[in-house]
Specification:
Blueprint: H1 2-20, E1 68-71, E2 77-87, E3 91-93, E4 100-113, H2 118-121, E5 122-128, E6 133-135, E7 144-145, E8 156-167, E9 172-179, E10 189-192
Antiparallel strand pairs: 1-2, 2-4, 3-7, 4-8, 5-6, 5-9, 9-10
Keywords: Signal
Signal peptide: 1-31
Region (Disordered): 32-65
């Protein structure tokens, strides 16, 4: 927490100095073009993604069930695994929009260091069979899954669910867990869905 506070103080001080003209701003770096992700492309996973644990038959795919540990470099360390990917997960609130369907990503997690909850530390993305990326954050405020990960315990949880909306006929090909504070230095955790 102290590192996060110190980093915020440094950024605010540098911003204040830049606004007063005391230090010149560096030239803008052009953004790299984003290319669509092909479902079979290697995306530099943080660990191997060999098949292991599976979802229930007919639910949405199989996942490795491996455990991943991610240190964001700002005081939070989480260990987590994806235990299932479900088609049509149980929902407490909301129906999918016409022409779309929900998939559920079922996650177990343990907070090893820090105080920020799981959804504050990670962006949860799904690469569909169409090569497009779909963000769990797009369902916040519009849909709530049973055992929704947004409400998961900040220290340890099992069976928390992130519901992501995909177009009908699109299946999940990969799951991406991106460190909110550590990116781009902290590599994405990429899990193949089979």
């Amino acid at each position: 927490m102290a590192r996060r506070t110190l980093a915020a103080a440094i950024i605010l001080t540098a911003g204040a100095l830049a606004l007063t003209g005391c230090i010149p701003l560096p030239p803008a770096v052009p953004a790299a073009p984003t290319a669509p992700v092909e479902p079979g492309d290697p995306m530099q996973p943080t660990e191997s993604t060999e098949p292991g644990a599976t979802a229930e038959p007919g639910t949405g795919g199989q996942v490795a069930g491996e455990e991943f540990t991610v240190d964001d470099g700002f005081g939070d360390v989480w260990t987590f695994s994806v235990v299932a990917v479900e088609a049509d997960p149980p929902m407490e609130f909301a129906e999918p929009e016409p022409g779309t369907a929900f998939i559920g990503i079922v996650i177990d997690g343990e907070h090893l260091e820090g105080s920020l909850d799981f959804t504050g530390c990670f962006d949860i993305l799904v690469v569909g069979s169409d090569g497009e990326q779909y963000d769990w954050a797009d369902t916040i405020g519009t849909a709530t899954a049973e055992d929704d990960i947004f409400y998961a315990d900040t220290q340890s949880f099992t069976g928390a669910r992130a519901a992501v909306q995909l177009p009908e006929g699109v299946t999940p090909a990969q799951l991406i867990f991106r460190s909110v504070y550590g990116e781009p230095e902290v590599p994405d955790t990429v899990i193949d869905v089979q």
